[in-house]
Amino acid sequence: MRPRFQFGTPFRPRLRPGSPLRLRLPLGSPFQLLLLACSFALAAYAVVRLLDRDWFDVALWIVGAALLHDLVLLPLYAAADRALVRVAGRHRSAVMYVRVPAALSGLLLLVWFPLIGGEVAGRYTAATGLSADGFATRWLLLTAALFGGSALLYVLRCTVRLRRATKERPSADH
Fold first, then answer.
1. Rg (Cα) of the chain, in Å, rounded?
2. CB 84, CB 95: distance < 8 Å
3. How many degrees, rounded to 5, is the angle at CA 118 between CA 67 and CA 49?
């Protein structure tokens, strides 16, 4: 059977003899188009409000964050994941029980890093009237809970798998 599309060949729509060429744009329903237009309007409003005061600092932060992620963080966590897969060996299914809490913990660290590091404690207290103490402790406790819950789920999964294997095994004749 010949494939319908091969790379390197130009796209030619199949037409029936005598039928006019009608190309339709793949648009959604009117509700989807309205929802898309509203989300673009909301995003445009957010960008205008965000860039209203410190547009240079915001642009610098976005470019810096993109470069930091792509040039530093991505190679680091890709190497860590490869090392984890190598260490896991034949227990590759256990890798997900480390990946998920590590990703969630890392995301929380990135979002709350200024407060976890204590760099903006004065500004946070002035803006909210709340103390900025304890963010690092709460992040560590949340990270421990994520990894502990993941370990508990892994142990439960292994226990269920072991029980199923024991029930399916034929009994030995003595």
1. 27
2. yes
3. 55
Single out the residue of 102, 132, 106 nearest to residue 120, CA to CA. Answer: 132
* Residue in 154, 111, 116, 155 with CA at minimum distance from that of residue 132: 116
For the chain, first and last CA: distance in Å?
A: 57
Q: Does residue 34 sit in helix, strand or coil?
A: helix
Handedness of CA 137, 138, 140, 144 (dihedral sign): positive
DSSP 69: I
Residues in the chain: 174
Residue 149 token pair: 């819950």
Q: How far apart are CA 137 and CA 115, in angstroms?
A: 11
| pLDDT tens-digit readout, 60-83 | 888 998 999 899 989 998 999 999
In whole angstroms, give the CA distance from residue 56 to residue 76. Answer: 29
pTM confidence score: 0.62
> What are the tens digits of pLDDT across the range 53-66?
888 888 888 899 89
pLDDT digits (tens, 9 = 90+) for 145-162: 999 999 999 999 999 988
Tell how far CA 33 is from the center of its chain.
Answer: 26
Quick one: tokens of 12?
């030619």
Task: Give the pLDDT confidence of 91-133 residue by residue, as tens digits.
Answer: 888 899 999 999 999 999 988 988 898 888 888 888 888 888 8
